[in-house]
Write a structure and sequence with these properties.
Two copies of one chain form a homodimer. With about 525 residues, chain A is an alpha/beta fold. Chain A has 18 helices and 15 strands.
Chain lengths: ~525, ~525
């Protein structure tokens, strides 16, 4: 049995606050810095590694974090989760997204079925559909192949799948596994759907409607846009649309869709990239084999998260360093900085994953906590960010912990040599340089050119961004967020904070408002 | 003469810290809330308005901010700036980006020319080129029209122009002023250039190389990619490229370009969207008339920034409320949340504009300041963000001030009615609902469903996003950042924080490293 307790009642946390803090600029200089880079590295799955040499930790802090992991029973809680305990206490649900890519423990039966079998069956059904679409067995009414797939979804049904698609699009083109272009419609802003519909050939497009409940207003509205466009082109919407939804939703057994694939209540939207939500669009875009590799990468990374030893569990280590930064050092924001243009929307996905999971101020029993929980997450790819907001990161008045990601090789293997180095080398040289610049700084008599240093960062390094490493990367962050939620004793799997806005928006549309809400409605001509 | 002093030596600031703080949830409820929405609104240019009813201010706080504006001589400093004083003291340069869209005060002569005339001349030269490209007077070597324009630039040469292009792309298509599709290459990651080049028809593409110094490594590297692609297609690069650079740069008078347009040292990259940096790509994409309207909108907004009365100067008011939130209330992050899909990259541009300008910890004389300066800026469009990170904004342990933007009408005027309302109405209803939800919250006995409220936001409301309102919006934020820099007594126009990384990256590429930097270089295979 695991015990859930608030962070400020944990003995190991109290001890951690008393451990001497590390002077990062000092320890990262000279031979000590070199030693740290070699020593403070943990292997991840698929050849990735997590290097935390430039984080504000040392062996003493790590020992404290290790104790904290033990006392808060992090791996035991993970075990309870993957064995099917009701970890999402607010909504009284199990949390089974790991099961989409493997089975880490016991079989879990719910709704009368083995859940691993259920998820695998959906993958097989999706693979079957994708293969038929690619081979031309399933076509439009004129017997022509579909060339484009359009995902209609918002939040977790959009950000994750979109980020994963962009991460693999160019890789797939070079590898010859690129099957269909994917587009995404998400916003209730009518210009979003209009612009996407104007940019595609609807006659050769297959649309995926993604909504677990089948009642998401944005998504149903955008479905209507799409149906109008299909009808206006003289096409039958039912021959152009598939659904990803829960088995109990109104979309599940409807003749309006070619086929429906199922998700369930045990997977939150932000954790659904490895479920049918990501599976349908990624399998159609790149082929089911590519999606399977992506799942394999995630499954391998998940296995590491079971490890009780802190230095063999990169997600748990990353999580605890983050807690140390947030609660002991008092840093309140984290930047995600991938040195890979293909990961351009990965930070936006992690922003949802992290902030929606751990942006809570009550514990899992609904009692207010008196310590900071989830930080603000933001980021853009490097080197672009260097020419943008890095000024503040280097010389601003707040310290912002950084998480870099870098790959030794590009995806497309097309490069030029300028000033004796390739672009890929320049990209890698920049991320190496940034880590050291942030950590060590540089003294200058002109204070405007002085760099204090002491700004902590970690880096995940891999050979190349491909389906397997992407899967591992995604699982790493999902597990990191989960472990942090355990430490903060919050429920990382509900999102009650989105409800009030929905309720009030409905009232505005029904013209049932008063006070400030009525005035704002009038100002906006509603 | 203006006097520059640190915020913590300003009498009015000290007084402001003693003014009673507003209970936002209380004052935004009931009749008082309705009254505030009507009262706390300031007209901007082009029919926009800045509503700050849901900010944590009242008449007393506003009186304090007004005193602060006066004592820190904000409008006088702006006057000094547009009259040509050397406000960028670090680099010993004038700050003249306002001059690209109008002349607010005296004529300013530099480098032997009247600067207003200089900027207008560049606009005319760009308009002339754009008209010739559109009419087919300037074509590729085969006599065929150019259909695509590709901007090669990074940081300010990328984020602003890209955000503005995306903001107007669909509007221009509907208005019939869309001339050429624009693409952007920025990252030194070789996959960025490769992917863009694979997505276009190079034979009908015109490339704009943008680099003030003519030495930006990323941009020169990407130029080389483009030249290779053109040569491989049997084309003459000199017939496909123009340059935007300073008159003294190596690119200025080179036969490698069809033509060169000029910027100068008095406009920082992040303030260059209204200069030739934005002018070339936007004039080619949408026609010079559209770019001229964009400048007009900015010019009209600039005029308001001259107003000494706080409640008639929306940029100054916005700036001071931001300072109050940062320095008195202690909030350290600001979210930019446009309810407009067309503004999808506008937050990324503002992130650079704000964080690179005011992410400083020394004052304009190079002395360390002992108060927080520029906040972290992040954001995504609504309603997408509602299904992502809003959970933390509503129920997280930190308070994040919010800046909404909303328009009554869509750009494309294509809409559907679902559940008795259009998508545009749903979009507007959501932003109205969010403001009130954040401010007032909602008491629930289930603490997990409880909303504390007290989370401040402002909103800029307009009829429609078009070139004029976009120009006004951009100028508003540029001037806001400028005024905040004045209050914090920092130089908002240099960026020394980007230098150290560049120096170290060069060392890595030259293999002149030791210690941690050598180890990281090895890990990344450089």
């Amino acid at each position: 049995m695991v015990t859930w307790k608030n962070l400020d009642t944990v003995q190991a946390y109290d001890e951690l606050t008393k451990v001497a803090q590390v002077n990062l600029a000092e320890v990262m200089s000279g031979a000590s810095g070199a030693e740290r880079v070699k020593k403070y590295s943990v292997p991840m799955a698929e050849g990735l590694s997590y290097n935390f040499a430039a984080k504000q930790v040392d062996d003493q802090v790590l020992a404290g974090l290790s104790k904290l992991a033990e006392e808060t029973q992090l791996t035991e809680k993970f075990e309870a989760l993957y064995n099917g305990e009701v970890i999402n206490t607010g909504e009284k649900r199990m949390v089974l997204h790991h099961m989409t890519r493997g089975q880490l423990g016991d079989a879990v039966v719910a709704d009368g079925v083995d859940k691993r079998e259920f998820y695998v069956k959906q993958q097989e059904r999706i693979a079957d559909l994708a293969n038929k679409v690619h081979s031309g067995e399933i076509t439009n009414a004129a017997g022509e192949k579909f060339t484009t797939v359009v995902q209609i979804g918002i939040g977790g049904s959009d950000l994750g799948p979109r980020a994963m698609y962009l991460a693999l699009e160019n890789w797939a083109k070079v590898q010859g596994t690129f099957k269909m272009e994917a587009k995404f419609i998400s916003n209730v802003d009518p210009d979003d759907a209009s612009a996407v519909l104007n940019s595609i050939d609807v006659a050769h497009s297959l649309f995926i409607l993604v909504s677990k409940s089948g009642t998401t207003l944005e998504t149903l509205t955008n479905e209507s846009f799409v149906k109008d466009a299909l009808k206006n082109a003289g096409l039958d919407p039912a021959k152009h649309m598939i659904a990803v939804t829960s088995e109990t939703s109104p979309l599940a057994k409807s003749d309006d869709y070619l086929e429906a694939f199922y998700m369930d209540d045990y997977i939150g939207g932000r954790y659904s990239s490895t479920s049918a939500v990501g599976g349908a669009v990624l399998s159609l875009a790149f082929g089911p084999e590519v999606f399977a590799e992506f799942l394999d990468g995630a499954a391998e990374e998940d296995k590491l998260a079971k490890n009780k030893e802190l230095l063999k569990n990169p997600a748990m280590l990353d999580a605890l360093i983050g807690v140390y930064e947030r609660n002991v050092l008092g840093y309140n924001t984290t930047a995600i900085l991938p040195y890979s243009q293909a990961l351009s929307r990965f930070p936006a996905h992690l922003q949802q994953l992290d902030m929606e999971s751990n942006g809570k101020s009550v514990n899992r029993f609904g009692e207010p906590v008196s310590y900071p929980t989830g930080p603000v997450i933001f980021g853009e790819p490097g080197t672009n960010g260097q020419h943008s907001f890095y000024q503040l990161l280097h010389q601003g008045t707040d310290i912002i912990p950084l998480q870099f990601v870098g790959f030794k090789n590009s995806q497309m293997a097309n490069d030029v040599v300028i000033q004796d180095s390739t672009s890929q080398q320049k990209l890698c040289a920049n991320v190496a340089a940034q880590i050291v610049a942030f950590a060590c700084g540089k003294v200058d008599e002109d204070r405007n050119k002085n760099f204090e240093g002491g700004r902590p960062s970690s880096i995940i390094i891999g050979d190349q961004l491909n389906p397997k490493t992407l899967g591992a990367l995604l699982a790493h962050y999902e597990n990191k967020v989960m472990f942090q939620g355990f430490v903060w004793n919050v429920n990382s799997f509900d999102q009650e904070g989105v409800q009030l806005g929905k309720v009030l928006a409905k009232r505005v549309l029904a013209h049932e408002t008063e006070g400030a809400l009525k005035e704002f409605s009038d100002l906006l001509n509603i």
